[in-house]
Design brief:
- The chain has 4 helices and 6 strands, in the order ααβββαβββα.
- It is α+β, with helices and mostly antiparallel strands and 155 residues long.
- It has 2 domains: 34 residues; 99 residues, no CATH class.
- Strands 3-2-1-4-5-6 form a 6-stranded antiparallel sheet.
- A hairpin with a 4-residue loop joins strand 5 and strand 6.
- It is elongated, with a radius of gyration of 28 Å.
- This is Putative photosynthetic complex assembly protein.
- It comes from Roseiarcus fermentans.
Length: 155
């Protein structure tokens, strides 16, 4: 067997190619280090504060509607009629499915949060899922945001 390490670079490999490869590696390492230290190219999520939260329960009704209740007092604050509010229904169906997969019941309410930067999120503390509702578009986020203004006079 031959000792390849003792021979040096492969025959026919120009020494200049190896120098440029080493130089490229060195520049990459130094560039990554300086970007990390200086913060250039770094993006950070803006810090927002909670403006309002609302703990909610969603109940399917025999007529096909979905009744939204405030968890604090059980008051019905909104009714999604059958065939309407497709995004709200699909979202809640997905969250309920995740709960069933984790063997969790509906004892813990969902938490709707309005943030100071205008975002709205829906969180399920039992599964750890948090949905940034604006990611689904302004109209879909508004479907949930309207619950903050719901009066509680729904039957």
């Amino acid at each position: 067997m031959t000792d390849l390490a003792a021979k040096g670079p492969a025959p026919g490999m120009p020494k200049i190619v190896l120098i440029f490869a080493a130089l490229l590696v060195a520049i990459t390492v130094v560039g990554a280090w300086s970007a990390r230290v200086s913060g250039v190219g770094r993006s950070e999520a803006p810090t927002a504060t909670v403006v309002r939260t609302l703990a909610l329960r969603f109940d399917d009704q025999p007529d096909g509607s979905v009744l939204v209740r405030r968890a604090s007092d059980g008051a019905a604050i909104y009714r999604a009629a059958p065939g309407t509010n497709g995004f709200m229904r699909a979202t809640m169906r997905g969250l309920a499915h995740a709960r069933r997969q984790n063997g969790v019941g509906d004892e813990t309410p969902f938490v709707l949060t309005a943030w100071s930067d205008g975002r709205t999120s829906l969180e399920d503390a039992t599964t750890g899922r948090r949905l940034a509702l604006e990611a689904f578009g302004a109209t879909n986020a508004a479907a949930f945001a309207q619950l903050f203004q719901a009066s509680g006079a729904v039957r």
